[in-house]
Design goal:
Shape of chain A: flat
Strand order of the largest sheet of chain A: 17-16-18-19-26-25-24
Strand order of the largest sheet of chain B: 5-4-3-6-7-10
Strand content of chain B: 15-25%
Number of domains of chain B: 2
Number of strands of chain B: 10
CATH architecture of the largest domain in chain A: 3-Layer(aba) Sandwich
CATH superfamily of the largest domain in chain A: Domain of unknown function DUF4159
CATH topology of the largest domain in chain A: Rossmann fold
Structural class of chain A: alpha/beta
Structural class of chain B: alpha/beta
Order of helices and strands of chain B: HEHEEHEEHEHEHEEHEH
Number of strands of chain A: 41
Strand content of chain A: 15-25%
Largest sheet of chain B: 6 strands, mixed
Oligomer: heterodimer
Largest interface: A-B, 26 and 39 residues
Number of helices of chain B: 8
Chain lengths: 910, 295
C-alpha cells in the first residue's frame, strides 16, 4: 500500500529549529551523587574504586535524548498516512452520511470509510464539506478544515431515528442557492441502503450537484421489528429485513422494564423472504411484566420495540371487606381475592369517601359492604357510566338490601341450599354456555354452592347471565351501564357461601373478566389536557440501549397531531403521572428498497481502510526511549549492579505486575486473620450495630455494664464489648451476640448464611425488641413485625417461654425472673431440648425487656437508664439474669447436670 | 556543593547534653530491664569470703584450723561445724562511654545510635554492680565512686548524659586496682587508642573493651555514586560506584577491630564486640561475667 504522508499541524515542525539549544542544555546536566554521613570515613580514606565518576553525559545518551525530542515534535505535528485513492480529482468533496438507526450497528465501519474518503483529499487543492442526514439545520452546508471534519466524524454518534432525506435535499438546494457550495462537486453518499420516502429526491438533487457516488455496506442488513401484537398465549412479533439473499437466524427476547430477559424465542428467516412473524408464548404474569421486545445481538434502535403501560398489570381497587378481616384474616373475602388476583393485577384497598378527586383504578371490586354512602354511591355510578369495570360479590348485606349497582334485580333474602331445614341439596356449577365469556373453562369438578342471592326472574334475564348453577339459577350476571360494566357474583368472595373461591375456576373466571376493563376517561377537559402531555422518561439510544434522556427533547402532546420520531420527540418511554406511552423508531415510517439511481450515478461499497495516525505510535516509541534513558542514568550512577541481576529484576517486575491482584487478596486475608486473632484473645460480648446510633451506644454501654458485673462476680473476664456489623464482620469469632431488633430487617443472602452458620455452630443470639412486647401485641397474629421479618429468613426452631426448670434459671444465680428495663413480657427460648446438635442448648433467647438499658453504665460506672421497677430489685435481677445468660452461652447445659446431684449424693451415702 | 546535614550533637555540647537528658528516662528503664534479667540469674557477690556477715555453717574439713570451728553450733550435734562469713570486699568499677561525634550516628531509624546502646549497656552494668554491693564511678563526670542502690540514679545519669572526652581516660583520673569498662567504636584508629590504653595499662588497671559498631559500618551496604561525609570534620570522599569498594572496606574494618582486640589481648584485657542490631542482653551478660571473673 502506498499512501501519502501529511501533517495536521505542519507549523509545529518548526520546533526542530530548537534542537541545537536542547543539545546544549542536555550537556549541562551531570547526575548528582547521593550524600551520606559516615563515621568510619577514615577507613575509606585511600580506597580506590575502579569506576571513574561520570562528569558529563556520554554522547550516546545525548543522542538518545535528542531522538526523543525529535519524536515528540513529530508526534505533535500530527502525521497521517492516508490510504491510496482510486481516482485523482481536483473537485471539492461533499460527504453525505446517513447516521440514522440503520447505520448504528455498523457505525464504526461508516466512520472509517468516511475518514478514508476525507483523508484522501489533496488538502492544498481540494475543499471538503460534510453533512449528516439526520441533522437538519437552516445554516448552509460549508467547507471545513480536515481536522474539524475528522473530529466530527470521530465524535458523532448515530441517532435513534430515520434520516431526513427530503429535508436534506432542500437544505442542499438552499446552500447551492446561497453560493455556499459550488456546482461542480464530487459527492460521496454513505447511504444505509433504505428509502424513507426521500431517497430518490435526494439522489436527483445530489446528481445535479456533481459527480455522485452512492456507497452502501452490502454486508450489513438493517433487520428490525415492525410490530408487536398481543396474541392468545403471548405476543406476535413482526420482523422485517432488507437483504433477502441468505437465510437469517436469530432470536427474539422479551424483556421487563429493568432489561431482564423474560423469554427467548429463536427464529429463522429463509432465503428469499423479507418478513417473518414470530409468536412468543408467555404466561400472563410474564406478559404483564414485559417492557420491550428485542432482536438478540442486533445493536440498532429499530431492533427494539418498547411496550408501554397498556401491557402492565391492571390496578384493582377493593372497596369494603376490611371490617371482619382484622381478627380472622384467613376468612376475609379480601384474602381470597388477593390469592386469586395477585399474580395478574395490583390490588389496593380503596376508600371511596377519602379523596373525591383521586382517579379511580380501571377495575373496582365491591365486596359485601352493605349500604354505600350517598357520595360513594354517586361516585361509583359515575365511574361505571364513564367506562369503569365494577365487579361485585354478594353477601348477607346485599341479600338484605340492594341498590342499583347490580346487573339484574335481586330477590331480597337470598337462598339457602342444603341446610338442615331445607329440602334441596347444595347445587353445583353448570358448564358455561357458549355466549358466556367463561366458555371453555373447565367446570367439570364439582363445586358446591350452599347460599346465593337470587335474581328476580325478569324477561331477558338469560342474556345477562354468564354462569349458572346446575338448577339454572344465575351465579354470575353482568350488564353494561353506560360505557362501563357491572359484574355480579351471586355468592361471597369467601368460602362462606360456596366452594367457588377455593377452586381454580374462580381464578380463571376473574382472569377472563380483567381484560374487559376499559381505561376510564378523565372527566374534565383540564385534566384531559394535562394527561395528554407526556415527558420523555427513558430514551432509546441508536444502538438499542435504554438510556436516560439527555434533555434535548420537547414535551409531547398526544392530543395534537402525530409527530414523527426525531430528535425533538425521540423514541423511548414517555409518561406523565397518569399514563405512559412508548414511541418506537419505526412508528409512522414506511421503508422501501433503495430506488434505482439515475444514469451517471456510481454505486459502490464502503471502503474499509481508514487513515493511520502516527502520533500515538511516535509517542509510544518516545516512552520506550524514556525508559531506556532512565535505565541508562541508573547504570551511569552505578545503581544497576550487573546485567545478570538486572534481568532478574526485570523478570520480578513483570511478575509483580501480573500477580499484583493475586497478592492483594492473600495479604488481605492475612490481615483479616490477624484481626481475628486479636478478637479471640479475650472473650468479648458482641452486639449487632443498627442504623440508630443511640441504640448502638446503649448496647455498648449495656454490654460494658454486664462485662463489669461478670468481672466482679464471676471468673468470666470479658474484654470491651465488640460492635458487629452483620454485612461485613466475621461472626465466627463471636460467641455471645446481643441484637436490639427494633425495626423490620432485610437481610442479604450472605448475612442469612452467616447467621444460620453462627446459630448452628453454637453461637448465642439474644434478640431484644426493647418495647416490652408492645409491637407484638399490636401486630396481627401476636408476632412482632421486626422479629417476623427476621424469622422469615433464618432457621428458627420451635420456641417456648422459659420453663421453670430451664438451665437459664440457674446457670449462675437461681432466678425465675428475666427482667431488663421492663419485666413482665414473655421471654422465649428454643423449645427443642433434645433434638438439636447443640445438646439441647438454646442458641436463641428472644425477649422485649430492653436488657441493655438495665445493664448499661456510664463512664462513672453509674446506671445509665432507669428501670421500670415492676419487680423488686429489678436492676439487680436484670444483672443476675445477664450473668446467667452469659454463663449459659459459655457453658451450655453444664448446669443442667445438677438435676442429678441429689441422686449422686444419695449413691455416695449408700 | 551541598553541605551534609549533620546532627547538632557534634556542634554544641550543651545542646547535646540536653538531648541526651531527654532520652535519659527511656534509656534508664531499658537498662533496668536488661539488668533485672541478669540479677535473677547470677548472684554476684553472694559467696563466702572475708566479711562480718554470717553466711553459712559447713562441716569442718581436715584442713580447717581448730580456731575456725564454731563450738556453739558443733555442740548441738555430733559433727564439727565451721562458721563462714560472706565475702564483702567491694571493688570500684569505672564506666567510660565514648562521647565522640561518630558515636551519635545510626544507619537507620529502626536502630539505636551507638552512643545510646553504649549508655544502655553501661547503665545496666552499673545497676547490677551497685546492687551487688560494688562501687561505680564515671571518669570525667563523677570521679567520686558511688555505692549502694542510692547511687544508682546518679551514676546512671552521669553515664547517659555525660559528654566527657577521651582526656578523662588519663591514668591520674583512674584508681589503682579498679576495673574500667570502655565502650567505644574505636574508629579513631588503633594508633590513637594504643597510646591512650598504654597509659592506663601502666597504671595497673584491669580493663574491658566494648567495641560497638553499627551494622552499616560493618557491612557497607552502599551502592552507586555516593558522596561520603565525615560526621564532624569537613572530609568528603566521592565514590563513583560505592559497591566496588565494599570488599576492601569490609576487610579493613575487620582488620581495625582485630587490631584493637590484639591490643587488648596483649595487655591481658577482655574484649567484647557488639553490633547495634543485636540484642543487648547477650553482651551485657558477657560483660557482667567478665567483671565477676576478674573481680
Amino acid at each position: 500500500m502506498s499512501g501519502s504522508l501529511f501533517f495536521l499541524q505542519p507549523l509545529l515542525l518548526a520546533g526542530l529549529v530548537l534542537l541545537p539549544l536542547f543539545w546544549l542544555l542536555l550537556s549541562a546536566l551531570p547526575p548528582e551523587p547521593v550524600l551520606r554521613l559516615f563515621p568510619p570515613i577514615r577507613i575509606l580514606r585511600d580506597l580506590q574504586d575502579e569506576t571513574a565518576i561520570p562528569q558529563k553525559i556520554p554522547l550516546w545518551l545525548r543522542l538518545l535524548r535528542m531522538l526523543m525530542i525529535v519524536l515528540v515534535i513529530l508526534a505533535l505535528a500530527g502525521p497521517i498516512i492516508a490510504p491510496p485513492s482510486e481516482q485523482e480529482t481536483d473537485r471539492p468533496i461533499l460527504l453525505v452520511i446517513d447516521d440514522g438507526w440503520a447505520n448504528a450497528a455498523n457505525w464504526p465501519h461508516v466512520q472509517q470509510s468516511a475518514l478514508a474518503l476525507a483523508s484522501n483529499v489533496d488538502l492544498e487543492k481540494q475543499a471538503i464539506a460534510m453533512v449528516f442526514s439526520t441533522r437538519i439545520t437552516r445554516e448552509p452546508v460549508t467547507f471545513a478544515p480536515f481536522a474539524e471534519i475528522e473530529t466530527q466524524i470521530n465524535n458523532h454518534q448515530p441517532q435513534p431515528f430515520a434520516p431526513k432525506h427530503l429535508a436534506l435535499s432542500q437544505r442542499l438546494q438552499s446552500s447551492l442557492d446561497q453560493g455556499a457550495l459550488p456546482q461542480d462537486l464530487r459527492i460521496y453518499w454513505l447511504s444505509d441502503g433504505l428509502d424513507y420516502g426521500g431517497a430518490s429526491a435526494l439522489t436527483t438533487q445530489l446528481a445535479q450537484m456533481g459527480e455522485l457516488h452512492v456507497l452502501t455496506d452490502l454486508t450489513h442488513d438493517p433487520i428490525r421489528i415492525t410490530g408487536v401484537e398481543p396474541s392468545a398465549d403471548g405476543v406476535q412479533v413482526r420482523i422485517q429485513r432488507q437483504n433477502q439473499d441468505g437465510p437469517f437466524a436469530g432470536a427474539i427476547l422479551a424483556e421487563d422494564q429493568a432489561g431482564q430477559v423474560l423469554a427467548r424465542q429463536a427464529f429463522s428467516i429463509p432465503a428469499g423472504e423479507k418478513t417473518s412473524e414470530i409468536s412468543l408464548s408467555l404466561p400472563l404474569e410474564l406478559r404483564n411484566r414485559m417492557g420491550a421486545v428485542r432482536i438478540e445481538n442486533v445493536r440498532s434502535a429499530a431492533a427494539v420495540h418498547l411496550l408501554d403501560s397498556s401491557w402492565a398489570r391492571p390496578r384493582i381497587g377493593v372497596v369494603g371487606g376490611r371490617s371482619r378481616g382484622a381478627d380472622q384474616p384467613l376468612l376475609s373475602e379480601q384474602f381470597y381475592l388477593e390469592k386469586a388476583l395477585a399474580p395478574f393485577a395490583e390490588m389496593a384497598v380503596l376508600d371511596l369517601s377519602a379523596d373525591p378527586t383521586s382517579t379511580l383504578p380501571p377495575i373496582i371490586v365491591l365486596l359485601d359492604t352493605g349500604q354505600l354512602s350517598g357520595q360513594a354511591h354517586t361516585r361509583l355510578s359515575e365511574y361505571v357510566q364513564n367506562g369503569g369495570l365494577l365487579i361485585r360479590f354478594a353477601g348477607p348485606r346485599l341479600a338484605e338490601r340492594q341498590d342499583d349497582l347490580i346487573p339484574v334485580p335481586l330477590r331480597s333474602g337470598g337462598r339457602l341450599l342444603g341446610s338442615s331445614l331445607g329440602w334441596d341439596q347444595p347445587q353445583q356449577l353448570a358448564s358455561f354456555g357458549d355466549t358466556s365469556p367463561f366458555f371453555g373453562l373447565d367446570a367439570s369438578r364439582p363445586i358446591n354452592v350452599t347460599r346465593q342471592v337470587l335474581a328476580d326472574s325478569t324477561p331477558g334475564l338469560a342474556s345477562y347471565v354468564w354462569a349458572r348453577l346446575a338448577d339454572g339459577t344465575p351465579l354470575v350476571t353482568s350488564a353494561v351501564r353506560g360505557r362501563g360494566r357491572i359484574v355480579l357474583f351471586h355468592v361471597t368472595a369467601s368460602p362462606d357461601w360456596s366452594e367457588l373461591p377455593l377452586s381454580g375456576v374462580f381464578v380463571d373466571m376473574l382472569k377472563r373478566i380483567l381484560p374487559m376493563a376499559v381505561r376510564p376517561t378523565t372527566t374534565t377537559t383540564g385534566e384531559r389536557e394535562l394527561a395528554s402531555r407526556v415527558d420523555l422518561t427513558t430514551a432509546l439510544s441508536a444502538t438499542g440501549k435504554l438510556v436516560a434522556p439527555d434533555g434535548s427533547h420537547q414535551i409531547l402532546d398526544l392530543a395534537k397531531e402525530a409527530r414523527p420520531v426525531d430528535s425533538a420527540f425521540p423514541a423511548g418511554l414517555w409518561s406523565n403521572p397518569k399514563r405512559s406511552i412508548s414511541r418506537n423508531v419505526l412508528e409512522h415510517l414506511s421503508i422501501n428498497d433503495f430506488p434505482d439511481v439515475p444514469a451517471g450515478v456510481q454505486v459502490g461499497e464502503l471502503a474499509r481502510t481508514p487513515p493511520v495516525r502516527l502520533s500515538g505510535f511516535l509517542i509510544g516509541i518516545t516512552f520506550i526511549l524514556l525508559v531506556l534513558d532512565s535505565l541508562a542514568i541508573l547504570w551511569l550512577a552505578g545503581k544497576l549492579p550487573s546485567i545478570h541481576r538486572l534481568g532478574r529484576g526485570a523478570m520480578s517486575a513483570v511478575l509483580l505486575v501480573f500477580s499484583a491482584s493475586f497478592i492483594m487478596s492473600p495479604s488481605m486475608a492475612q490481615a483479616n486473620e490477624l484481626a481475628a486473632l486479636q478478637l479471640i484473645e479475650r472473650t468479648r460480648l458482641a452486639y449487632v450495630t443498627t442504623e440508630n446510633r443511640r441504640v448502638d451506644e446503649m448496647s455498648h454501654a449495656g454490654l460494658l455494664g454486664l462485662s463489669r458485673e461478670l468481672y466482679l462476680r464471676t471468673t468470666v473476664e470479658p474484654g470491651a464489648p465488640l460492635p458487629v456489623h452483620l454485612e461485613t464482620d466475621n461472626l465466627s469469632v463471636v460467641s455471645f451476640l446481643y441484637w436490639p431488633i427494633l425495626n423490620e430487617v432485610s437481610l442479604s443472602d450472605h448475612v442469612v448464611i452467616k447467621l444460620n452458620a453462627y446459630l448452628k455452630n453454637g453461637g448465642m443470639l439474644i434478640l431484644d425488641t426493647q418495647d416490652a412486647g408492645l409491637a407484638a401485641a399490636a401486630a396481627a397474629g401476636g408476632v412482632d413485625p421486626a422479629l417476623a421479618s427476621l424469622f422469615a429468613k433464618i432457621d428458627i426452631p420451635g420456641l417456648r417461654q422459659i420453663p421453670n426448670d430451664h438451665v437459664l434459671t440457674r446457670a449462675y444465680y437461681l432466678t425465675q425472673v428475666f427482667p431488663g428495663r421492663y419485666a413482665n413480657a414473655p421471654v422465649w427460648v428454643e423449645a427443642d431440648r433434645k433434638g438439636s446438635s447443640l445438646d439441647g442448648v438454646s442458641s436463641l433467647v428472644i425477649g422485649s425487656h430492653d436488657w441493655s438499658a438495665a445493664w448499661a453504665i456510664n463512664a462513672d460506672g453509674k446506671p445509665k437508664a432507669a428501670v421500670s421497677d415492676e419487680i423488686p430489685q429489678q436492676r439487680e435481677m436484670a444483672r443476675r439474669f445477664g450473668i446467667n445468660l452469659v454463663m449459659y452461652g459459655l457453658t451450655g447445659n453444664y448446669k443442667a447436670d445438677q438435676v442429678h446431684i441429689p441422686a449422686l449424693l444419695e449413691r455416695l451415702n449408700r | 556543593m551541598i553541605r551534609p546535614r549533620r546532627t547538632s550533637n557534634s556542634q554544641d555540647p550543651q545542646l547535646a547534653a540536653e538531648q541526651l537528658s531527654a532520652r535519659y528516662p527511656a534509656l534508664l528503664s531499658e537498662a533496668k530491664r536488661i539488668s533485672a534479667n541478669v540479677l535473677h540469674g547470677a548472684h554476684g557477690r553472694r559467696k563466702r569470703g572475708s566479711g562480718e556477715t554470717f553466711w553459712e555453717f559447713r562441716q569442718a574439713r581436715a584442713e580447717d584450723p581448730a580456731s575456725a570451728i564454731d563450738w556453739r553450733r558443733s555442740a548441738r550435734s555430733d559433727t564439727l561445724f565451721v562458721r563462714e562469713t560472706e565475702w564483702e570486699a567491694a571493688n570500684t568499677v569505672l564506666l567510660w562511654r565514648d562521647a565522640s561525634a561518630g558515636m551519635n550516628w545510626r544507619s537507620s531509624n529502626t536502630l539505636p545510635s551507638k552512643q545510646d546502646r553504649a549508655a544502655v549497656l553501661l547503665t545496666a552494668l552499673s545497676i547490677a554492680l551497685l546492687k551487688g554491693g560494688e562501687r561505680c564511678a564515671v571518669p570525667g563526670v563523677s570521679e567520686q565512686p558511688g555505692t549502694g542502690i542510692g547511687a544508682q540514679n546518679r551514676i546512671a545519669r552521669d553515664i547517659i548524659t555525660g559528654t566527657s572526652g577521651a582526656h578523662s581516660l588519663r591514668p591520674s583520673g583512674t584508681r589503682q586496682y579498679a576495673h574500667l569498662v570502655i565502650a567505644s567504636d574505636f574508629l579513631e584508629g588503633v594508633d590513637v587508642w594504643q597510646q591512650r590504653l598504654e597509659a592506663i595499662q601502666n597504671a595497673g588497671i584491669s580493663v574491658i573493651l566494648l567495641h560497638i559498631a553499627d551494622p552499616a559500618e560493618e557491612q557497607f551496604p552502599y551502592t552507586g555514586h555516593t558522596l561520603f561525609a565525615d560526621v564532624s570534620g569537613p572530609e568528603r570522599i566521592d565514590l563513583g560506584r560505592a559497591q566496588s569498594v565494599q570488599a576492601q572496606y569490609k576487610k579493613r574494618f575487620h582488620q581495625a577491630r582485630q587490631d584493637i582486640q590484639i591490643l587488648a589481648r596483649r595487655f591481658g584485657w577482655l574484649f567484647f564486640s557488639h553490633r547495634t542490631d543485636q540484642h543487648p542482653t547477650k553482651v551485657f551478660l558477657a560483660l557482667y561475667q567478665g567483671l565477676g571473673g576478674t573481680g
